[in-house]
Design goal:
With 243 residues, the protein is mainly β. 4% of the residues lie in helices and 53% in strands. It contains 2 helices and 12 strands. It has helices at residues 12-16, 75-78; strands at 2-10, 32-44, 47-55, 83-93, 98-105, 119-126, 132-141, 160-171, 176-188, 196-210, 213-223, 234-242. Strands 1-2-3-4-5-6-7-8-9-10-11-12 form a 12-stranded antiparallel β-sheet. Strand 4 and strand 5 form a beta hairpin. The two termini are 35 Å apart.
């Protein structure tokens, strides 16, 4: 009923998904990193607790390239979050057709938190049929850097960051799978600052004509024209890959 997981990742995605743990003042990077390190266990029937660092519940895609049908990360997932450090509870009902998750974390993608506040995370997972799955995800909290280097110092009182995420997957048949991901987020530095918003949508089509071969297409649009996630522009791309 209990397990300990230590999950390492190596390569370009290790650096990409650990960007907040790389010191900008140095040229060093982290080609190998700890993606997950947690302990989890069943408290009683259908209720599971997890504590440590684990991969995010947000988004359609995953960090590992070999598990990502499109290989390259899309804009929506590529701008995070990627993992969380804290504790969470998972509860399933009706033989797994409904799943609920709630937890408290030390912000986004930060092994050393940038302030004393916490973020709340949550998920509602619905699986009405064996082919259809719907995930409603949330992360929110004050994640403004409390150690501002601006002169004069910028207060982080009232600074909040939120992200809402919808993921839908539908297995049409053995060969064809469809996916949809819609994201909306906003970041507010303090009470005196307007929120900077970002968001977008992505569609996925995966075709497996024979076992061992998958052809996948992704079309995604990402709007960060307010610079909330550091892109400072709109972006759209269509990616075709096969694995």
């Amino acid at each position: 009923d209990w397990q300990v997981v230590a999950d390492l990742i190596h390569g370009p995605n290790a650096e990409l998904t650990n960007f907040n743990n790389i010191r900008a003042a140095t040229s060093s990077t982290t080609s190998t990193a700890i993606k997950q390190a947690y302990i989890s266990g069943t408290l009683f029937k259908n209720l599971k607790v997890t504590a440590g660092q684990w991969s995010t519940h947000v988004g359609y895609e995953v960090v590992e390239s070999y598990q990502n049908a499109n290989y390259m990360l899309g804009y929506l997932f590529g701008y995070g979050p990627f993992y969380h450090t804290g504790a969470k509870l998972d509860y399933s009902l009706f033989d797994g057709k409904i799943g609920l998750m709630a937890g408290i974390t030390n912000g986004w993608d930060l092994q050393a938190d940038n302030n004393k506040d916490k973020s709340a995370i949550g998920q509602i997972a619905l699986k009405p049929t064996s082919s259809l799955a719907i995930f409603i995800n949330y992360v929110g909290g004050n994640e403004t850097n409390a150690y501002s280097t601006a002169t004069p110092a910028v207060s982080n009182v009232g600074g909040m960051r939120h992200i809402g995420d919808l993921v839908v997957t539908y297995q049409v048949n053995k060969m064809l799978k469809l996916g949809l991901n819609v994201v909306y987020g906003e970041n507010k530095v303090n009470n005196e600052t307007a929120a900077a918003r970002w968001g977008g949508a992505a569609g996925y089509v995966s075709l497996t004509p024979i076992d061992g071969l998958t052809l996948s297409y992704r079309l995604d649009y990402f709007d960060d024209s307010m610079g909330a996630r550091g892109l400072l522009q709109n972006a759209a791309a269509g990616i075709v890959s096969n694995k």
